[in-house]
Amino acid sequence: VQLVESGGGLVQPGGSLRLSCAGSGFTFSSYDMNWYRQALGKGRVLVAFITNTGDRTIYADSVKGRFTISRDNAKNTVYLQMNSLKPEDTAEYYCNAKRALQTYWGQGTQVTVSS
């Protein structure tokens, strides 16, 4: 089983990034998907959630209206479009696959928002 994130990097405040997470080794379309983030010295927090079919999404209050989670089950990939980025969005971003008691994590991708 693998979840591989990509798309992180350094961006100026107000900029945009799109993160991708490609899954393999499991039935991707059967799993709800999440994006979490962890800032330096802080705990890991949920940023966005999408059901396995993509029919429902949930966002943390801190990113509502700025971030959009989506998925393409044909490509076994989940995305996080991040707009209007702020310095406080700086963190390691992780994707997570969850179905009942089964959960998988990616290795993370760093997002740094700084001028």
Strand content: over 45%
- Oligomerization state: single chain
- Secondary-structure element series: EEEEEEEEEEE
Instruction: Give the averaged pLDDT, no decimals.
Output: 98
Instruction: Give the number of helices.
Output: 0
Largest sheet: 7 strands, mixed
Runs with pLDDT <50, length 5+?
none
Number of strands: 11
Which bin fits the share of residues in helices?
Answer: under 10%
State the secondary-structure class: mainly beta
User: Which shape, going by the Cα principal axes?
Assistant: globular
Could you list some keywords that capture this structure?
115 residues, 7-stranded mixed beta sheet, 4-stranded antiparallel beta sheet
Describe the structure.
With 115 residues, the protein is mostly beta strands. The chain has strands at residues 2-6, 9-11, 17-24, 32-38, 44-50, 57-59, 67-72, 77-82, 91-99, 102-105, 109-113. The strands form two sheets. Strands 2, 4, 5, 6, 9, 10 and 11 form a seven-stranded mixed β-sheet that branches. A four-stranded antiparallel β-sheet has the order 1-3-8-7, with no helix packed on it. The protein starts with a strand and ends with a strand.
In short, what is this structure?
The chain is mainly beta.
Outline the fold blueprint:
Layout: E1 2-6, E2 9-11, E3 17-24, E4 32-38, E5 44-50, E6 57-59, E7 67-72, E8 77-82, E9 91-99, E10 102-105, E11 109-113
